[in-house]
Amino acid sequence: MTETIRPVLAGNKALVVGIANDQSIAYGCAKAFRMAGADLAVTWLNDKARPHVEPLAIELEADITAPLDVATPGQLEAVFDLVREKWGKLDILVHSIASAPKEDLQGGLLDCSAAGFAKAMDVSCHSFIRMAKLAAPLMRDGGSMFAMSYYGADRVVPNYNVMGPVKAALEAACRYLAYELGPSGIRVHAISPGPLKTRAASGLKDFELLLNEAAQKAPLGELVDIMDVGFTCAYLATPFAKRVTGGTVYVDGGANIVA
Ligand SMILES: NC(=O)c1ccc[n+]([C@@H]2O[C@H](COP(=O)([O-])OP(=O)(O)OC[C@H]3O[C@@H](n4cnc5c(N)ncnc54)[C@H](O)[C@@H]3O)[C@@H](O)[C@H]2O)c1
Predict the structure, then answer these.
(1) What is the CA(184)–ligand 1 centre distance, in A?
(2) Which of 39, 56, 117, 216 has its CA 20 to 30 A from that of 109?
(3) What is the spatial distance between Cα 162 and Cα 166, in angstroms, rounded to a whole number?
(4) Angle CA(93)–CA(29)–CA(156) in degrees, nearest 5?
(5) The pLDDT of residue 2 is above 60
(6) How far apart are CA 118 and CA 112, in angstroms?
(7) Distance from Cα 136 to the centre of ligand 1, integer Å
């Protein structure tokens, strides 16, 4: 990493959910926030994930680390208890998680089961609403919240299947949360990165094709990386972006504007 940036987020407290490894979009966000001077809270999914995430949390000098499976009752509340005890406030929240049962993700939407749809929606969308509810009272001086979406929310992307409707719901949730939390000075953004080779993406059929197409389609002619996403979120978290909220922000080299 050669970039240096001024500590524009010094004093900010950021909770970043979704680091699985150093390829994760959430890791790019956490790293960019830290480079800009923010203090971090970082979670891992479970004991299996911990050895992959804990060294990254140490590297990022995270003040708070904790397990968090949003499908396990009480774990989300426990993370926010830690944040309240240690920091007494929160400025930045990142939701960078998604999941759907493999059989529901890899079949077409017509074949998605009710249980699979509900599970995908709960982990990938409603958990953000639960996080926002717990985070808002801690954002006493205002704050910013981010949820990771994808272009498959707007247009049909072959093989994105059930995640298309789920991400569309996530983007709509960002708009409604931005509306409800705006009076408290809290800004909410859906971030829509171009395709990135991560563990979550490896669950999608023909993902390599998507990567090739994205690079060809983007006016800027290149794939994005996790730091592109991280620096965008870091900027949006600063007062320089204090009048920006509720929208979907594309970090895709411009691919979304091309038919
Ligand atoms: N990789 C891409 O091409 C791409 C593009 C646009 C958007 N996104 C979105 O970015 C986000 C992050 O994905 P990524 O690509 O960095 O992959 P990733 O595999 O690195 O991250 C996904 C994370 O979701 C977490 N997760 C899954 N189920 C969970 C649960 N029940 N509780 C808590 N955490 C859970 C995993 O532990 C993991 O850390 C996702 O919302 C994904 O849909 C990814």
Answers:
(1) 28
(2) 216
(3) 6
(4) 90
(5) no
(6) 10
(7) 23
CB atoms inside a 10 Å sphere around CB 10: 10
Q: What is the 3-state secondary structure (H, E, C) of 173-212?
A: HHHHHHHHHHHHCEEEEEEEECCCCCCCHHHCCCHHHHHH
Helix, strand or coil for residue 197?
coil
Rg (CA), the chain: 17
pLDDT in tens, 86-134: 999 999 999 999 999 999 999 999 999 999 999 999 999 999 999 999 9
What tens digit of pLDDT does each residue of 243-253 get?
999 999 999 99
DSSP state of 7: -
DSSP class of residue 123 equals I
Q: Report which residue type is found at 198.
A: T
8 A C-beta contact, residue 33 and residue 231: no
**Residue type at 54?**
E
205 φ, ψ to 5°?
Answer: -65, 140
Inter-residue contact 4 to 36 (CB < 8 Å): no
Which tokens belong to 252?
């895709």
Mutating to test ligand 1, I would choose from 22, 25, 130 the residue with most ligand atoms within 8 A of its C-beta, which is: 25
149: CB partners within 8 A, 6+ apart: 167, 170, 171, 174, 190, 191, 192, 248
Q: Which two tokens stand for residue 248?
A: 């979907």
Nearest residue by C-alpha to atom 5 in ligand 1: 195
Within 6 A (CB) of ligand 1 lie 18-20, 23-26, 45, 49, 68-71, 96-99, 123, 148, 150, 193, 195-196, 198-201
DSSP 8-state secondary structure symbol assigned to residue 147: E
Cα 1 to averaged position of ligand 1 atoms, centre (Å)? 23
